[in-house]
Amino acid sequence: MDEMERQVVATGGCQCGAVRYALYTAPEGSVCHCRMCQKATGGLFAALAKVDKADLVWTRGQPASFHSSPAAYRDFCAACGTPLTFRFIDAVHMEVTIGSLDHPELAPPKLNFGAESRLPWIADLVPGALPDKQTSDSGAATRDVRSRQHPDHDTPADWQPPPA
C-alpha cells in the first residue's frame, strides 16, 4: 500500500516548520531517563513515541542526524535544533519526540526506560507537588512573547513565521 492509500494518524515537526512528518500508525509513548536522552533533549528525560520506521514519512524538509552511539542516530532540525527522533540502526521501529507531535496528547507515556538515571526529585514534579504558576504570571506582560514557532498543523510550503 502506498502513501496515497494509507491513512495519516498523526503529524508533527520542528519548532520553525522546516521539517515536518506524518505517521501512518498510532505512536506508543514512553519516557527515557538515560543520561544520553537527557543530554540529547536538554531535559530531565526524553518523551518518545515508538512507530515502525516504514510508518513515518518526512513531508517537508529532511532532518539532520547525529550518530549518538555506535547503535543509534538522533534526528533533529538543522535550522532550529528541535530534537525529532531516536532510532536504532538495526531496529524496524524508531521513536519520535512526543513534544514534536502536533497533538502530543495522542502518545501518553506507558513505560519508563533508563530508570537507573532517573533524577531522584522527579516525583516532585507531579501536579500539586510544587506550586503552579501560569505563563501570564511570569512577567510575560512586560515582554513581547508572541510565538514565532510553526503552528501545530501542516501549512503551505511557503509558510513563514510572523515578523519579529
Structural features, described:
With 164 residues, the protein is mainly β. It is 4% helix and 30% strand. The chain has one helix and ten strands; from the N terminus they run E-E-E-H-E-E-E-E-E-E-E.
Short structural description:
With 164 residues, the protein is mostly beta strands.
Indicate the topology.
Blueprint (H helix, E strand, L loop, with lengths): L9 E4 L6 E4 L4 E5 L2 H7 L4 E7 L3 E5 L3 E6 L2 E5 L6 E6 L4 E5 L14 E2 L51
Parallel strand pairs: 3-10
Antiparallel strand pairs: 1-2, 2-5, 3-4, 4-9, 6-7, 7-8, 8-9
The third-level CATH topology of the domain at 10-117 is: glutathione-dependent formaldehyde- activating enzyme (gfa)
Would you tell me the overall average pLDDT? 91
Name given to the CATH homologous superfamily of the domain at 10-117: glutathione-dependent formaldehyde- activating enzyme (gfa)
CATH architecture identity of the domain at 10-117: Alpha-Beta Complex
Net shape? globular
In terms of structural class, how would the helical and strand content be classed? mainly beta
Terminal-residue CA separation: 43 Å
User: What is the C-level CATH assignment of the domain at 10-117?
Assistant: Alpha Beta
Q: Order the strands across the largest sheet as they lie in space.
A: 6-7-8-9-4-3-10
Mind telling me the C-alpha Rg? Answer: 17 Å
Residue fraction in strands: 25-35%
What are the segments in which pLDDT stays under 50 over at least 5 consecutive residues? none
SSE order in H/E notation? EEEHEEEEEEE
Helix content: under 10%
> Using DSSP, what is the number of strands?
10
Q: Give a quick account of the main beta sheet: strands, pairing sense, barrel closure.
A: 7 strands, mixed
Tally of contiguous helical segments? 1
